[in-house]
Write a structure and sequence with these properties.
11 helices, alpha/beta, rod-shaped, Rossmann fold, about 15% strand, two-stranded antiparallel sheet, 2 domains, six-stranded parallel sheet, Arc Repressor Mutant, subunit A
Length: about 220
């Protein structure tokens, strides 16, 4: 019979009692083993190279140093290692910094033991995981970033040029746009020409498609 492959886990926390609790929890499992422990970011990076764990469980705050920096270094040096950030703080800035640093999971310390085990199993299978209480924050940030990107797509245009572009996207002619905005047709032609030039587009059809793609209506 082939020996069971055990998930190799490294614990990183500057509080020994936390490491002892996690180790006791993990080693109840026959398919998991703690291969290394570290109390600082620098020690975590060094020991990850020496022991090459499958999963790293790391406190986000390590006695004045940052677990996020260690996460980024380990992710770069051992891209196959999965890192779970374990923290008492549900801070948006920390959450997104951890994700950018390459963390596969983000779990609050208030989570029960079985939730930590499930987190290890989940990231070990190649999936990402967030504490349920943080999921809506991520979606809210994604939505905010999308709105910012859409707004930036029209940042070169004046407010009046955006109004003109919206009417172009609605399929209106220069004459109809002039009537709607109480402008001369020559002025509208100039607006349309400026819009095409600023956005690097060739014609009204491209302008209409651009306005639709970037949700111009919602940015007005």
């Amino acid at each position: 019979m082939r020996p069971m492959h055990k998930q190799r886990i490294m614990l990183v926390d500057d509080h020994e009692v936390v490491r002892l609790g996690l180790k006791a929890l993990i080693e109840r499992r026959q398919d998991m083993e703690v291969v290394a422990e570290a109390a600082s970011a620098a020690e975590a990076v060094t020991k990850s190279q020496a022991h090459r764990p499958d999963v790293v469980i790391m406190d986000i705050r390590l006695g004045g140093s940052s677990g996020i920096d260690a996460c980024a270094a380990i992710s770069q040096q051992l891209p196959e290692a999965k890192i779970i950030m374990l923290t008492s703080y549900a801070e948006d800035e920390m959450l997104f910094a951890a994700i950018r640093a390459g963390a596969s999971g983000y779990v609050l310390k208030q989570a029960g033991g079985q939730e930590v085990i499930r987190a290890i199993e989940t990231v070990g299978q190649g999936h990402s995981l967030l504490d349920p209480s943080l999921t809506e924050r991520v979606f809210a940030e994604v939505r905010r970033a999308a709105r910012a990107q859409e707004s930036a797509a029209f940042s070169q245009l004046t407010e009046q040029e955006r109004r003109v572009l919206l009417l172009v996207a609605d399929g209106k002619t220069n004459r109809e746009i002039a009537q709607d905005l109480h402008l001369g047709q020559g002025t509208v032609r100039n607006y349309v020409s400026n819009i095409l030039s600023k956005l690097g587009l060739s014609n009204r059809a491209e302008a209409a498609a651009y306005a639709t793609k970037h949700n111009l209506r919602e940015s007005l």
